[in-house]
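Exam revision sheet. Question 4 asks you to relate a sequence to its structure. Input first:
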Amino acid sequence: MGMSVVISEAAEHDAEQIFKLQYLCFQSEAALYGNYRIDPLVETLDEVRAEIAGDCVFVARLGDEVIGAVRGAAHEDGSAAIGRLCVHPRLQGHGIGARLLKAAESALADRHGTKRFRLHTGHRSEGNLRLYRKVGYETVGTEKGKDGVPMVILEKPAGTFVQTA
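Answer key, structure tokens:
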């Protein structure tokens, strides 16, 4: 590749790249469910900007290009939600998603004392489920998303990151 992928906190100027990357990355999820109204595809640029300003958002960069992103939000009960993990399709399978997850989890634990992480993915999203289980998440339930997609809910306690590389 010639360059190293760098994980860092997102800045306001990253919003447009995150927005475009998210739209690209979640096309395969939408196709998997035959539903192009899933939340990541209908989120607006302003909503992405608001999350960067208010939540824990990390990006993976290859040079100046944002090639991955993840978001996290702490809750008062000591838990945190992780969401919108995406890595550019041409760079998937190289551990970037796991590195993004680890960065978000570490930041949430350090800043907010988060004790438990929770995320969700579509029930047919085998690649996502495989990654989440590999880094220590376990299925704790299911629910139907606002967009009608059946979701698998996964959780893990803080400090249980399983090394993938």
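Marking note for examiners. Residues 5-157 form a domain with the Aminopeptidase fold (CATH 3.40.630.30).
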